[in-house]
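Bumping my old thread because nobody answered last time. Still need a sequence for this structure:
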């Protein structure tokens, strides 16, 4: 069946699914979609971190729970960990502010696809397991305080690391894999 085209109308060129330009376009769109999922998930975590830390700073007791449907976040400003070192009291409140600023910057940088947003996200996600491991060695095992935690707490801390470390390393790998889509 022949179709007639008006003068000046643009014809669509069909490419087979087996290759050619159509396949390259599909691959590029799929890659952008996957990178968007990664960026969206990390941005959601960062935005939840902003909300959580805002509540920690503004609420008089400095601790509580936020419920977002099926998701519940506990927050506190009574204790913070930076680079594996635990801060309490006023120092913990002051340590909440950089967390808040980093989470906000990560969210903004990823939403706007800024190069520095990707770099900050990658650096912070790499920092997290190092901080967790340092904390687990210094405090629950008692190397810094000379007072080890109860064995059940030590097991729970290391179980948390075993569960979270692969997720954090997966996030690093995905950010690295799609780095070219974050750099403008």
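Sorry it took so long. Here it is:
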């Amino acid at each position: 069946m022949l179709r007639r085209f008006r003068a000046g109308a643009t014809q669509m060129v069909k490419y087979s699914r087996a290759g050619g330009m159509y396949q390259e376009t599909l691959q590029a769109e799929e890659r952008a979609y996957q990178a968007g999922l990664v960026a969206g998930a990390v941005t959601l975590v960062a935005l939840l971190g902003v909300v959580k830390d805002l509540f920690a700073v503004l609420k008089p007791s400095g601790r509580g729970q936020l419920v977002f449907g099926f998701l519940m976040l506990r927050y506190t400003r009574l204790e913070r960990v930076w680079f594996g070192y635990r801060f309490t009291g006023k120092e913990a409140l002051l340590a909440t502010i950089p967390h808040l600023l980093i989470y906000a910057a990560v969210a903004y940088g990823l939403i706007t696809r800024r190069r520095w947003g990707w770099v900050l996200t990658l650096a912070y996600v790499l920092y997290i397991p190092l901080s967790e491991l340092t904390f687990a060695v210094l405090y629950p095992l008692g190397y810094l305080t000379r007072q080890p935690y109860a064995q059940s707490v030590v097991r729970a801390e290391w179980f948390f690391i075993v569960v979270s470390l692969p997720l954090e390393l997966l996030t690093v790998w995905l950010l690295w894999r799609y780095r070219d889509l974050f750099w403008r």
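The two ends are 46 Å apart (CA to CA). Let me know if any region looks off to you.
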